[in-house]
Amino acid sequence: MDDNLLWVYEQRCLMAVAALQKNCFEAVYCKSREEACRNIIDEARKARTIGFGGSMTVRELQLEPDLEQTGAELLQHNKPGLSAEEKLNIRRQQLTCDLFLTGSNAVTLNGQLVNIDGVGNRVGAMMFGPKQVIVVVGRNKIVEDVHAALKRIKEIAAPANARRLDLKLPCAVTGQCSECNSPDRICRATVILDRKPSQANIRVLIINDDLGY
Hints:
Largest sheet: 6 strands, parallel
Helix content: 25-40%
Number of strands: 10
Strand order of the largest sheet: 1-10-7-4-2-3
Structural class: alpha/beta
CATH topology: Rossmann fold
Distance between the termini: 20 Å
Oligomer: single chain
CATH class: Alpha Beta
Number of helices: 8
Radius of gyration: 17 Å
Order of helices and strands: HEHEHHEHEEEHEEHHEE
Shape: globular
């Protein structure tokens, strides 16, 4: 990427970091994926259990081999071959794990984390339960405000996730949100963290790279 454009993105990332810090989040700017991975691995060495929110951003970092070497138990509800009951049990365990790794659908330049969930395990664990939460965010998730965040989720993140999960949803066909009433609907719980919840330990890593949906 052109150095001048990279600098522009860096300034935007730094603005998001500063806004998050004002809202009591621990926020860190990472110049690269590798820098973010080092931050996560250092924290993972302290953990006995590590939960995953199902984030494409976290998956793209390809952390699993390094995390396995820490000796921690990896709580992944998306592993192939699991029954519905096993997936649900793992999601419940994630709520009290030592380290919870997730992404965010959007981060505003006002320092808010904006997410929409279908099950609620991801947003639930982000707010309360795990000893440490690390939210990994690519520069493509940074938006101006909550309105722009919700627009981004409905127009980009939700349709992409619906197709990834092979769900029979209108947005998986048209790419457009129709505020459907489908039993498979994944837009069920909208959570806006205006500030860090008082009893949560949340670190947000803002990476100067495009990651996830």
